[in-house]
Amino acid sequence: MSRATLGVEGLSRKRAMRPAIVALCAVMALGLAGCASKQDNLPGSGQGMAGANAGVASPGSVQDFDLNVGDTVYFETDSAAITPIAAQTLDKQAQWLQRYTSYAIRVEGHADERGTREYNLALGARRATATKNYLVSRGIPANRISTISYGKERPVAVCDNISCWSQNRRTVTVLKGAGS
């Protein structure tokens, strides 16, 4: 092949590739547009409630509290101490409860299945009281908060290993309804 022939062939190849390049650019543009809309649906973006969940969590609703604040905090084994992670959730609960003052709450204390019934009832009560005291220290009036201990009677996970025990060592903040 001569040099002149290669130049013509190269030019022909470039022309032949144009539609493929245009198609590739179109696909990339559509992909980027798809990514932009998916990013809007990420948790915390504030725009992800369109579609199947639209209207589910209106501000100030029980669903808003459960989905956007979190109603459960977890404890270490045999402990009623508020962990730093639990404190973050309780801080969000306190902010939400200060904003929506018509709700009373019940803090339910739980324990895993290890230990006697009496021990776990007492541990659940200490956890509920610790949670209540933390919320009171963050400005929630004590008369809005009641506590109850279920001990090990209401597990969320049933198995005989640490993955279940850690889920059952918790307190759950239950909204008692506006004005009740």
TrEMBL record:
Annotated Pfam families: OmpA
Keywords: Cell cycle, Cell division, Cell outer membrane, Lipoprotein, Membrane, Palmitate, Signal
GO BP term, pick one: cell division
InterPro entries per UniProt: Bact_OuterMem_StrucFunc, OMP_bac, OmpA-like, OMPA-like_CS, OmpA-like_sf, Pal, Pal_lipo_C
PROSITE patterns for the chain: OMPA_1, OMPA_2, PROKAR_LIPOPROTEIN
A cellular-component GO term for this protein: cell outer membrane
Membrane topology summary: Lipid-anchor
Subcellular location: Cell outer membrane
Tree of life domain: Bacteria
All copies of domain OmpA-like, residue ranges: 62-179
Primary localization class, coarse: membrane
Keyword Cell division: yes
Quaternary structure and interacting proteins, as annotated: The Tol-Pal system is composed of five core proteins: the inner membrane proteins TolA, TolQ and TolR, the periplasmic protein TolB and the outer membrane protein Pal. They form a network linking the inner and outer membranes and the peptidoglycan layer.
Family: Belongs to the Pal lipoprotein family.
Function: Part of the Tol-Pal system, which plays a role in outer membrane invagination during cell division and is important for maintaining outer membrane integrity.
PANTHER family the record matches: LIPOPROTEIN YIAD-RELATED, STATOR ELEMENT OF FLAGELLAR MOTOR COMPLEX
NCBIfam families xrefs: Pal_lipo
Record-given protein name: Peptidoglycan-associated lipoprotein
Organism of provenance: Martelella lutilitoris
Gene name per UniProt: pal
